[in-house]
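pasting input
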Amino acid sequence: MSEENALAKRFNDAWPLWAVLISQAVLTVPWLWRTAPFTDEALYLEAGHAEWAHWLHHVHGQDYASWFSGAPTLYPPLAAAADSAGGLPAARAVSLVLMFATTALIYLMGGRLFNRLIGGLAGALFAVGGLGVHYGAFATFGPFALFFLTLAAWAAIRVRDGGFGWLPLCALALVTANAAKYATLPWDPVVVLLLVLHGWDSGRWEAIGRACSVTATVLIIEGGLLVLGGADYARGLVATTLFRSIHWGAPSSAASVLARAFLLTGVLVLATALGVVLSVLKHRPKALTLFLCVLLLAAVLAPIEQARIHQLPSLDKNIGFGLPFAALGAGYALGEGRSWLGRRLAGGRLIAAGASIVVLVAVLVSGRLEGVQFRGPGIVVAGQIVTAIRHSYRPGTYVISDGGARMEQYYLPRIPQQNWIGMFATGEGARDRIANQISCGEVSVIVLRKSAGSYDHPYDKSIARLLNGSGRATLAAVATQGSYSTEVYRMASPGGRSGGCG
Amino acid sequence: MRRSWLATLVMPVVAAAVTAGVLAGTHHTTVPSLSPSAPQPGRSAAGPPSVPCLHGPLPKPFTGIAINPQITAHVQAFRRATAAPINLVEFYNPFGQPFQRWEAAQAVQTGALPLIQLNPRHTPLAKIASGGYDPYLRLYADAVKAFRCQVVLSFGHEMNGWWYPWGLPETTPATFIAAWRHIHDVFAARHVTNVTWSWDPSHLYQHFRTKSASPASEWYPGNKYVDWVGVDGYLGPGQTFREIFAYQLHNIRSVTRKPVYLAETGVAGGPGQAGQIAQLFASLRGYRLTGLVWFDLNRKQPWRLEGRPAGIAAFRKAVAQLRH
């Protein structure tokens, strides 16, 4: 067979992968344009642009490293470069490409570990789920780190066949994943265990040696990077990841975390558990059964960790890191179930095919129903808010916003950063100050947010009273999405002299 | 088989070698260097040129600036822009590094008193207190003594905040005080008489949701060990002097009557900046402060006045009013 024919055959043989990627594109691509940037996306793009400004023009920016959950020098500059080239959709398209690559790696892993059918099923389960679609159009650390984590797993599996270039690739991919998003650290032992268990039958000591080698290499490089990064990076790691429960948000009950996790990935986890049961029932080698147990463990790591630290908000972000492993386990269960039923029942294969379709549809539907938390406002709503601010803003004045206004800042870069004041809490002093700023004409725009028709925070009400009392506030826009609404007030300049204004 | 084992063994060794090489090439040593500072381009190996020292007390209130190592050029540019008499120049000297004679000499040559912030970023304070860094401290003390001119020395500024390793929560007040007193005693034992000891806490004192600062008085080493008290604090958009400084100034005056000044301050850019600068200067007399040091650097926030015409004009006006 000529080389050309061999390539064409390989291309044709991979039709399940092409089908999966097309489905992934159909589900994901519309989201590239559908929403304005979520807070995190706008923040990471801002940090990326700041890094470029620092590298190219030595401009001092904020010390993002001390409070980011991943290295600000790794993913954000990449996203910012794409943002400069094609705006937010381009930055999100980087994530989409990474997610395509991740799907392809899962397909390849399934094919190499089991067979092409299982690879195709695993890829499909990963690609059509709600989190997979969400990550594909989300410009944050997640898709970048997920790709490198999956690459590390793929390299770990390739090592057994003697390609020792895969060993350093495995270590470097793990380091990159960990540096890009510190929350991927719990999956390092999973990759190391895959390295051991997959290589067990071809020489256990060699497999253990390779695992120790990768572990040592990762520890050495990451230790070095931490020393190189200095105290700011260490603070970021501690505050956002190691002791997140102490530093962030109100606690959630473990039950609520696990219930949410079940809605997001429950079908895949159950299917992976079924794969373990099938492996035991079919008396598969112990190493394989343990391998499947490791996949199951990887699938539930994030929910367990989030339940341990009682944190719901970061669950949606971190649960995705277990998805490739869960998809592989679930793919195995469906593929193995098909052959098991086929041998025991007349029409068993048909039943198994039906079951596979049901699981795929369940994953697809649950993903569509269970909206992931981290979405920016719809593009129409964002447009209303931004246009109102743009038309109301007077140069040299402040914009006061209820909470952060990163989406608004992303679209209005001409308003200097220091002219945005985010309200997060207001004591007596701060309320007096805002009142003073309003009466002195230093504020031209005020943005307030409502949930279910009423203001989110007690200080919103006091600001609304100030607005009404000033007699200079005009409601410029009300943008509503679901039960949330945003009000933009235009503040007219005060006529005549204002007493007490510096 | 042998080849595979070799690859397995070699990988971490290569990683260690490369990592060590990169760190050696880029990271500053955390071990105090006891050797004299190496001559740098444009600097005499014999040390800075001899400078005539300044005599007499500082004007009250005095004005100073915290700046980068290009002291002469920065001071001249700042003076040109604001017409401010720069009486004091503040710069930062990492603990473990030699006394920065060259920078101190530049400050004196511009007619300013050098204020040196000695920052123990990679140094456990308990080890300083127990004498673990005495050889370094003795060398540093001797270098300061040899400089002859008066310098202001501060150690571990903003110790009562959470953002530096020499502050909360990694270092307790007791450890900080013990380290401070020990450094003072080493200088006293070397008969160094040209140091004014400035103890510089942050204005923050509150417990926030996730982190804590504490009242400055908890960290005070005692009147015997301190000559000046400098408070660090910055005015964000719309914030008032009272909001930022009132509590800590009151707290400090409950433990000492030493002269108090603002050792690092600035006002964020924005429409209210000019008014806040005027208020900052006006408050010096109201709060009986001996002076202020403007932080003219862009660090976590762009505090520099450069490129802010309204801010520069306000600064110029406030300084002129102060002099009258």
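fyi Chain A touches chain B through 43 residues (CB under 8 Å).
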